[in-house]
Amino acid sequence: MRRLVALLAAVLVTAVSAAAAAAGTFTLHPSGFGEHSYSAWNAHQGLPDSTGNQDQALYFQKMTTTATNAAGVAVIKGFEGLPVSSLSRLEFWVGTDGHCGAGAPRFDVFVQLPGGMQQTVFIGCQEMTPGPTIPAPSGRPFQQRSYTGPFPQVGTITGIAIVFDEGNDVGPGFVYLDDITVATTTVAHTWTSASDNGNGETITQDPTGADFLATIMGVPLSMLFPT
């Protein structure tokens, strides 16, 4: 997992310049790479949406071993350039029939420290505070999981991602997430479905896997796979 985390951190830091132009437009891009691993919005699997009646939930899958270099990933954009100290809450609702481990699903917050050093803040599902459990229209129970700190007091956010890289050797190999929230002291955004992207862009499923992940991060595809 450490190698994959370092890879994602390097990829997101490389994309900071391109992302800065779109800062303030909140988007979530589901994707993934590697064997039997991806993420996508699925209809009629989650809690009620903010608009419409599709009841979408964000599905993550890794149907292979944890050691395999693969992951379901959701890249969150729009918070780049904000002080990491302004983060106030990270939250999602997790389907209790899926995996909620110490390392996945997790928020990765990538931070640039004064002087140019990089730091990654890891917030795993088990580290987050459990809240109420409610049933979705499909009958699947969802439990609230939130984290309100502490967050680092110095540095600038360069990227945020949700990563699912624990495989079916340690759990069921999948999880549904819904009502995903990133909040700071000045701005906040919640994704209940693909239609909640702040620029009106709707992405329900990545058709090209790692190619798409490389495109939205602005890096060559080769950077996603260590040699």
What attributes does this structure have?
5-stranded antiparallel β-sheet, mainly beta, single chain, 12 strands, 3 helices, 227 residues
Q: Mean pLDDT, rounded to whole units?
A: 84
| Number of H- or I-type helical stretches | 3
Rg from Cα? 16 Å
Distance, first to last CA: 15 Å
Percent strand equals: 35-45%
Please give the largest β-sheet: 7 strands, antiparallel
Low-confidence stretches: 9-23, 214-227
What is the element string, with H for helices and E for strands? HHEEEEEEEEEEEEH
Q: Total domains, how many?
A: 1
**Mass-distribution shape:** globular
Category by helix and strand content: mainly beta
Total beta-strand segments: 12
| Helical proportion, percent range | 10-25%
In short:
With 227 residues, this protein is mainly beta.
Would you spell out the secondary-structure blueprint of this structure?
Blueprint: H1 2-14, H2 16-20, E1 27-33, E2 37-42, E3 57-62, E4 71-77, E5 87-95, E6 106-112, E7 118-124, E8 129-135, E9 141-147, E10 156-164, E11 174-184, E12 188-191, H3 210-217
